[in-house]
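seq:
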Amino acid sequence: MTALEGRSYDYITVGDVLPELAIPLTRTLIVSTAIATRDFQDVHHDPELARERGSKDMFMNILTSNGLAGRFVTDWAGPVATVRRVKIRLGAPNYPGDTMTMTGEVVAKENGLVEVKVVGANSLGNHLAGSVTVAYPAAEGKDA
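struct:
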């Protein structure tokens, strides 16, 4: 396997565990990703206004959480795999100064598709939980 080829569909099995990914939750990450996703809600960039609205601090937006879940799986799957679906539920907020640790496990593999159960946890509990499905084009139509 070369870096350009990535992980091979044939060598992925249900039960494979992805390596953990620790993501430091900096103010810069939270603000810049909110701007990049065109989410200008004040709770994602203004700590004072977020507190006025009942939050402890500003917090990460859902579009960033979706993107980080997809990135976690595609970094593992490699460049030949494409995201078909991200299905997550949010829990505890991602506040600046914390770390979100992503974990994952392959839960299904069929016809070129691989489904990975993902969890992103911080010091408050699970920030996100759900699944990411990726496709391996050369393997589509192949049984597991």
